[in-house]
């Protein structure tokens, strides 16, 4: 049985936004217990020309809601990038999830051939819905989630690969909280 566009997108975005929210909660607790200023984590970068943790979370949310909106043929709701703390970032994730949950799967299903066009500065991209989702939207979303994870791990937050993967629905015997 072929997988639908909604089944290929919504669960991925939902799952990893939940994971990202959990990682931020762990990071906030880490900062509180160790007396680290939250700004040190929120502004952490892997390299000077890369965006900080704050932006990585914003970008992850933007890719998830943008993909759902574009595939459903809806207006992408604008979110101002005004977050300055962990609570506000988790609120942004919640707003992103609320938008995703408001879109009926039937609006996304059948969008494999829908033309999707994007503009990032001078860069203009165009693809069919399936190529956009599988070749750009999901990889870009996961890039920003994984960079957020890497920033936290590099900053000493005690998280591991299984924290990044989270609970995988339908997979039995997957322990949580293992470093690696």
Report on the architecture of this protein:
There is one protein chain. Helices cover 59% and strands 7% of the residues. A hairpin with a 2-residue loop joins β1 and β2. The radius of gyration is 17 Å and the shape is globular. The protein is mainly α and 180 residues long. 33% of the residues are buried. The protein contains seven helices and two strands; from the N terminus they run αααααββαα. The chain has one domain: Four Helix Bundle (Hemerythrin (Met), subunit A) (Up-down Bundle), CATH 1.20.120.
Number of domains: 1
Largest sheet: 2 strands, antiparallel
Gyration radius over CA: 17 Å
CATH topology, by name, is: Four Helix Bundle (Hemerythrin (Met), subunit A)
Assign the CATH class. Answer: Mainly Alpha
Query: How many beta-strand segments?
Result: 2
First and last CA, distance: 35 Å
Write the layout of secondary structure elements.
Elements: H1 5-34, H2 38-42, H3 53-72, H4 86-102, H5 105-108, E1 115-120, E2 123-128, H6 129-154, H7 161-165
Task: Output the keywords.
180 residues, mainly alpha, Four Helix Bundle (Hemerythrin (Met), subunit A), two-stranded antiparallel sheet, 2 strands
In short:
The chain has helices at 5-34, 38-42, 53-72, 86-102, 105-108, 129-154, 161-165; strands at 115-120, 123-128. With 180 residues, the chain is mainly alpha-helical.
